Fold this protein.
Amino acid sequence: MTDTGPEGFASAQAQATYRSPVLGSSPASVAVSAAAVVKRYTQGTARIDALREVSLTIPAGQFLAVMGPSGCGKSTLLHAIAGLTRPDVGKIVVENTDIATLNDRQLTHFRRRRVGLVFQSFNLIPTLTAADNIKLSLLADGRARDAEARLPVVLERLGLTNRRNHRPDALSGGEQQRVAIARAMITDATMLLADEPTGNLDSISGQYVCRLLQELCQEQSRTIVLVTHEPAVAVWAERVVVMRDGQVLAEFATREFSQPHRLAAHYQDLISEPRIGSRSAPNERNS
Ligand SMILES: Nc1ncnc2c1ncn2[C@@H]1O[C@H](COP(=O)(O)OP(=O)(O)O)[C@@H](O)[C@H]1O
Ligand SMILES: [Mg+2]
């Protein structure tokens, strides 16, 4: 793979390799198992089938990219895995926990401790410094001592030490996304779910974030699910699942494609395949 990241990243990495004691003792072999997951929305009289019997297994420690055209259900799937959206039908098991069995309090605990979320729009609190944004989820969980102990390590690992007292509006897009990743990883969540994390970044910053995610996966055995429609981003993952119209259309290993443009061509071929039967796209269907 071509090394397109900015210089200095490798040395920053050598200085601070963040290793989590929690993650080191977490040998579960399957991180996520989704079985025939259905999610429908209604808008007026229209029914939108956002997920139509999606089944997927994600091994622990895998870096998975989920690709697909806009509206195909990628974010809905990610939210269902994170416990932010409850499926109408089907089962989602995350690290041996069937998340449908969790009550609201347990679900909050699950989201705070087990999953880290990263969004396209960063979702940082504008009035807080980078350091305070990063610590916030641990503080909300009553873990101030953990927050203080881990903050310097996480800042250094993400190359943010000299940005710690800056507010988001004084940071570049790439730095803001690194703050958001730091916020997601400081809790020691074993799973990082990233929804189009490079969507608002220039290509250099985007590649930097991709490499960071890949390294977090390799160094710390974190499971990463990355939603993207950009082949140059998906190529950093180990495996790609392609969705269309609320369903899993295909999957492949990225090692089959040495270059992003080959992956892009394969992806285009897949999503241009004629639809099976006469089913229309979910967004066009009425109940
Ligand atoms: N809260 C919601 N209410 C109604 N429709 C929704 C809602 N969330 C998503 N949808 C619809 O579900 C489909 C899948 O959306 P989404 O998962 O966001 O797709 P993607 O992330 O692949 O662009 C789309 O047609 C979208 O408009
Ligand atoms: Mg989306």
Remarks:
- The two ends are 47 Å apart (CA to CA).
- Strands lie at 30-43, 46-59, 63-67, 89-94, 97-98, 115-119, 191-195, 223-227, 239-244, 247-253.
- DSSP finds ten helices and ten strands in the chain.
- Residues 74-75, 195 surround magnesium ion (ligand 2) (CB under 6 Å).
